[in-house]
């Protein structure tokens, strides 16, 4: 499969795109590369993708009630599939509860 960076570089509209645009495009490409032909992921695939691609954000979250709720929802009714919109909501939810987010907020920018 083609590396994400190469896929990203092939999108002409992102040639002069902002960091945020590229970040969201990267998320979309990671999702699309894992999705089935209908553009959806099984809940098991979603859980696996979060572990492999979002590990820094979910590390240490195992005992938080919201994390447990999200993961148990992925374990239930595993035949149900996740679309891109639901996947992005999961990413945002996991980011907001993450210890890594606090570390990111504490990064000092120098000008």
UniProtKB/TrEMBL annotation:
Gene3D superfamilies found in the cross-reference section: EF-hand (1.10.238.10)
Protein name, per record: SNTAN protein
Domain EF-hand: 62-97
An MF annotation (GO) of this entry: calcium ion binding
